[in-house]
Amino acid sequence: MDEERKDRIDKLNDTLNSRTRYQNPLDKRTPVKESESSVVGDSWQTPGLDEMLRHERVPNAVHPLMKKIFVSALLFFVAAILVAGYVFMGGSTFISSKNVDINVLGPTIASAGEVLELGVSVSNTNNADLEFANLSVQYPKGSRNPENNAQPVTYTREDLGVVEAGAEAVKNVRVVLLGVTGEVKEIKFSVEYKVKGSNATFSKDKIFEVTIGSAPISLTIESPSSVISGNTFTTLVSVTLISR
What is the pTM of this model? Predict the structure, then answer.
């Protein structure tokens, strides 16, 4: 039995390894029969499908609150554009401190002890009037009243009234400055005003610098740089009147 099986295996092996006994399968093709009809029937249209088509998904409706928010935002945007255009065309009475200017006309170098005269103008280039306007001046240390040199002056305030749109108010300021040669003095000018329909007070400031060119009196002090405790020492003070 085993030998018979072995003979069968050997024959099969010879057949597989033989170049003459093995033949490729024939290339046989069978044409596909044409369909008798290409018309698709309507059997797929069932009542269930018609019911599904009738109940197609409907988009969710927008909430009424969202509509109100959208309309409010749109109205606000349109109103902002109209207001901006109105202001840009110059039809508004809004006032800006950028359109209020303080101009100071006068020398930037002054002699100590002499009267310094300055011309101050407050111009209003807004399209509305400045109401209850006033001009205040803050003087540096060592300033004196030009009418009385012995009287110090630190602050003055003058009423300008109403500064109309496109107009200016002019005031003269007189003061005597004291200091050493080359010292820079700062005079601060401030304008305060109100606008129609508002209780708020607005202001605009300007700093004007004046350099002391010369002094009527020169003061020099000479003293030793060091002394011994208990000993006397001498200090020389020289006061010189500078003639003009």
Answer: 0.56
